[in-house]
Write a structure and sequence with these properties.
The protein is of the alpha+beta class and 247 residues long. It is built from five helices and six strands; from the N terminus they run αβαβααββββα.
Amino acid sequence: MKAQNKFPEYDFGKFKGENLDQDIMRLCYLSMLLAADDGVGKIVETLENEGLRKKTLIFFLSDNGAALARPNDLGGVNFPLRSGKGSVYDGGCHVPFVMSWPETLPANETSDLIVSSMDIFSTAIELGGGKIPDDRVIDGVNLIPYLTGKKEGPAHEHLFFRRKLRNAWSIRSGDFKWVWNPGKKKDMKMTDPFLGPEQHPEGGLYNVQKRISEDHDVSSSFPEEKKALKELYEKLVKKLPEPRTLN
């Protein structure tokens, strides 16, 4: 479904540093994209020349959305997704995730599975004949059975994102995502206008399947869904160790 987006056309001006040529920065960004494309092309070409392409699973993804709030990061925008790198909105954590395996996965198809980069580990281990460790929690899953129809249902019941230093977290479960983002701590200046406080005192609830821009809080329409995600959050944080911070 096509996302509705009320955000204005993005303006780099508020993030532009002094003595910075915006056009040059954009060209540098595009040049790096071209270099990445050339590099992937060389890998694929080598696999084809060695007769290994059809037997090789390739993952291609980004680690986060484009950075928006630093003058030296000009070039990327995340619209229609909200916000960018470092955020628990989808502009910071919803990224391309491409898998290619000619002998196993059909080409030119998309999936509605909610997946994570953590799934690469589990997928690779099981495909290589290894065993997933059972002496610790492994959050990733082997995606291949879901993509080939051997398993049905969601690969993950939920995904949890937390930036404790920035006092923000979100949980995606099914069509819904709960975002609690009151802003950075008092000694950290807010720079991105799309990272501002939620209107609802307990965070915003979004149906990201219908409206990926996270610009319409549906808390009042789905109180039970929000309550369930809040209870899930409280359960999850009890299990998580305190995050390490840089000195």
